[in-house]
Amino acid sequence: MVDKVEVGAEGRFLTVGFADGSEARFHAVWLRDNALDPATRDPGNGQRLITLGDIPAETRIASASGAGGVVTVRFAPEDKEVAFPAEWLARHVYDRAQGRAPGWCEEGVTVWDGSTGQAYRAPLSDLQGRGAVLADWLGAARATGCALSTDGPVESGALLEVVKLFGYVRETNYGTWFEVRTEVNPTNLAFTGLGLQGHTDNPYRDPVPSLQLLYCLENSAEGGESILVDGFNVAQKLRDEMPEGFDLLSRYCARFEYAGSAGVCLRTRLPMIELTPDGALRTVRFNNRSSAPIVDVPFEDMETYYAAYRRFGELVDDPANQITFKMVPGDCVLFDNRRLLHARTGYSGSGSRWLQGCYADMDGLLSTWAALQGSQKEAAE
Length: 381
Description:
Strand content: 25-35%
Radius of gyration: 25 Å
Number of domains: 2
CATH topology of the largest domain: Double-stranded beta-helix
Number of helices: 9
Order of helices and strands: EEEHEEEHEHHEHEEEEHHEEEEHEEEEH
Distance between the termini: 19 Å
Structural class: alpha+beta
Largest sheet: 6 strands, mixed
CATH architecture of the largest domain: 4-Layer Sandwich
Shape: globular
């Protein structure tokens, strides 16, 4: 509901007062561009039917009123009237303080450490019902960066059933999926029994795969526990401890490369800590095995850069920032590869450890999550 609707000077903006006592201003051109009427947006898919060039540059608000939770605006010179639900306006307020320190997280992201983090668990059969359980599971993956399905079939390729819950496999030079187990003369250190430091996968790709899945088929070896680290938490800790170091890791590009198999030579030049233009954490790239010589940092900053790089690695290795768990056959862990680092403890030659992995994209997960939320809302109404 609204308790105030006031047209600003010369009709350039509109001030709306909401029932909770808050107020927000909306520019005339912004309101007109985001009009919800069927002549502006397709009622079926919501896409715009006009371009900004179709809106008069001199657009102004001729009049406005509010009643029954709806704000009605008449635009000049078109003499066009558009109704905006107050709830919609409240969800799209941009009239707020923008001065946040670099390294903040977008709404809905829950940063965690070893004492607060855990992977949301649900049986695969419950997730395949595509109801509230799947919505909660996907929502947890979005918020914390990870989720775990359990009790799945113990058969090769079963991880594709998990991907089908929300999207599609992103195929790479490693194939539709890849095996994670001890190999003779491996093309990648992941295919050995060595312990691995927390890392993000494929930093040598642009764009990097945004989701990774690891599905357990065997895990009777001694050791081989899985470890997850919230890279956003580590980045914020580095920012608080070493502001200059955080600035250097986010301002200068690192380099990554992979050429471990015939016909493949992948290279990127991107920051270890990537921020959006307004300073939100976007992507963490940390993989010592795939790091190439760093040559984009000025001489006078290189020592401080390396001190920050070292401290970032120490925070990744700190058990206080890790969650550790032993996967059992039928488990599948899904995690945001742009944010979470994954690791494992070493394992011995007795017994066996066999995981299959693949990549997918976050947009499919978010789309499925949003669609499920919409379906649940409609059912409730």
